[in-house]
Design brief:
Layout lengths: L6 H9 L5 E2 L10 H4 L17 H8 L10 E4 L1 H13 L5 E6 L4 H8 L3 E6 L10 H7 L4 E7 L11 H13 L3 E5 L21 E6 L12 E4 L3 H11 L8 H11 L2 H24 L4 E2 L8 E2 L2 E2 L7 H10 L3 E2 L1 E2 L10 E4 L4 H19 L1
Helix pairs in contact: 3-9, 4-5, 4-8, 10-12, 11-12
Length: 366
């Protein structure tokens, strides 16, 4: 089979709907329709615009200095934006560099399309921060695309604006496109990055309503780029996939983005409170250490108990007995002693989930 399933999504399929406490999710706690207080009234359930509703694209463009709605295409989640971008820019045999660890689709798509792939590794000993000198060594004559995600999922690491500009300069000097997943940009705890697509014609920004806005169920993402030839190529591909977006989802997205400061402010307050609790808990745990995240709602702690070689037992016991969900590191092609910890849920859910994780560790390791 050309395309293969991602271990991350297989893990979600097996356990996500069987648990009560989700401390592995990568989004702010999902909202309910009642919480949105949106009246769909007599909205026509017709086909939408192939590029996305103009008023929605205008709201998205406000996040990118110098861009207009003509520089935006709305997609079915950020995943479709990623798939279409790689498909538009790369052919079999082209070389793609993907920051790692990362959401697996970002490297599975180029692999499935026959591209040569190299991981640009974020190292634990370097606080999961990217090293541009290491990236420079990875570039080949046939490198067509560099894929970065900052703030990063699953590590929560962030680059600064001067670093982003260095990466853009590197891409420009080598005539390589930079695909920049900035889904968590609005959940930076300090030094929020600018919309990367506003900084260069060689940058494609990808984002969505899923993570920071707590709306993964509406499956609405987007791509922003000053090079309209890329917009045209992506449109040609997505017309073979989803054609247009859900009219209901676009209506919800545009109404939420019109009040984005309100939603983001509330999300940040919630995330800071949860992060403080998680930080205190990890500080009390002899068996776990972490690099404290600098943004977003995920971190990538590590089980450090000496002589313990089967963390999978912890994750499965946690899910099956304690009804609590984290993501094993192997789902990101990483050492399984790492696991993704999400702290975007309710305070009570995270608190109870951490207590259950402690019980599972004690039970397996002791």
């Amino acid at each position: 089979m050309w395309f293969k399933r991602m271990p991350l999504e297989e893990w979600f399929d097996k356990y996500q709907y069987e648990v009560e406490y989700d401390i592995g999710e990568s989004a702010v706690k999902f909202l309910t329709f009642d919480e949105l207080n949106i009246d769909l009234g007599d909205m026509p359930l017709r086909y939408g615009y192939h590029l996305g509703r103009p008023d929605l694209r205008e709201e998205i463009a406000k996040q990118y200095d110098g861009l207009s709605y003509n520089d935006i295409i709305v997609t079915t989640g950020a995943s479709e934006a990623n798939f279409c971008t790689v498909s538009a820019l790369c052919k079999p045999g082209d070389h793609v560099i993907v920051e790692h660890p990362n959401y697996p689709s970002l490297y599975e798509v180029p692999c499935s399309l026959g591209c040569e792939l190299t991981f640009f590794s974020l190292k634990y000993e370097n606080n999961f921060r990217p090293d541009i000198d290491e990236l420079r060594k990875l570039i080949r004559p046939n490198t067509k695309l560099i894929s970065l995600t900052h703030p990063n999922n699953p590590t929560g690491s962030v680059m600064f604006v001067d670093e982003l500009q260095e990466y853009i300069k590197l891409a420009e000097e080598n005539d390589i496109y930079l695909m920049f997943d900035e889904t968590y940009r609005k959940l930076a705890f300090r030094n929020e990055l600018p919309g990367a697509a506003s900084l260069s014609d060689k940058v494609i920004s990808i984002s969505s309503m899923s993570k920071s806005y707590g709306l993964p169920g509406i499956r609405t993402g987007w791509l922003a780029c000053r090079d309209n030839s890329i917009i045209d190529d992506v449109l040609a591909i997505r017309e073979q996939l989803t054609i247009t977006n859900s009219s209901i989802s676009e209506e919800i997205a545009v109404q939420v983005l019109r009040k984005k400061e309100e939603y983001i402010s509330r999300a940040l307050e919630h995330v800071h409170r949860n992060l403080s609790m998680v930080n205190q808990w990890i500080g009390s745990m002899a068996m776990i250490e972490w690099i404290k995240p600098e943004a977003g709602v995920v971190a990538f702690p590590m089980i450090i108990t000496e002589g313990f070689h089967d963390p999978e037992k912890v994750y499965r016991l946690l899910a099956e007995k304690y009804k609590t969900f984290v993501i094993p590191g192997r789902c990101f092609e990483m050492d399984n002693k790492h696991f993704r910890l999400g702290y975007g849920g309710t305070y009570e859910e995270i608190e109870e989930g951490l207590m259950n994780l402690e019980k599972a560790l004690d039970e397996v390791v002791s």
